[in-house]
Prior knowledge:
By secondary structure, the chain is an alpha+beta fold. It has helices at 2-19, 33-37, 45-66, 75-95, 162-172, 190-199, and strands at residues 96-98, 104-106, 124-128, 131-142, 147-154, 180-182, 205-207, 226-228, 234-237, 256-259.
Amino acid sequence: MANLLLDLCDDLFRAWQAHAPRTRQQALPPLDLGPIRHPARPRDAGERQALLVQAVALSQYLRGCLLPYLPDLPAAPRQRISRLLDALEKVIADAVQLDGTGYPTERTANGPYRIASATDLDATFRHHDDDLTLGDNVAIATTGTRISAAVVLTGAVPDSAAPEALLRQQQAAGRPLPAHVIMDRAAGWGKCRARVDLVSQGQTTQVALIPSAGGADPARFGPANFTLNAERSACTCRPTARAGPSPPWSSRRTTWSASWPRC
């Protein structure tokens, strides 16, 4: 984490030198860039902690020096430098814990959508099954002959967010929405189907297999165990339809029904 902070400080220093007006170059404090760009590799926990203390102190100091002058920059470099300043703040908030005196230690639990690369600030960790990868989550919508939409989401965004993002891109381009969006079980959650219906204003239906137990504990009843009648007035649960060995209560009763008046 200390090395990430030092990399961000170096990028911030370079960006300010390259893009800030000459009259604002004095905002950069005099720094020895050697240890920032080529820090010594820690050999033990003590040296690792010392490097973290230095990196956090430098990040806070550099951010405090430059932040007041940010409004004086032209729009394009201001956006780039603002992202680096925000990244320093987020990395410290997500990965560092400060005690009452401001002394830093590494957090045991990191914050959400944490930054792990100074090269790509949009990349986050994607957890897919047992694989943990730093990068992006790319989604593409196609017809039989064309690519109709393509979005790049940060890696920590779940696959279930893809249908809504693809529909919104098509809406922004003024293109007609499809009648159906077909995807794997990741889009089978009820909340994903509801978002597709809401964003498309009922024009698009999400088609996907229902996750086991709706994505929850597979030992519990899930959507696949229930059947809604054509009149949408009664719901029948057949637990014996679930995969795996029969539960102990299946021999006593195999069907439950519930009905309700129309609201």
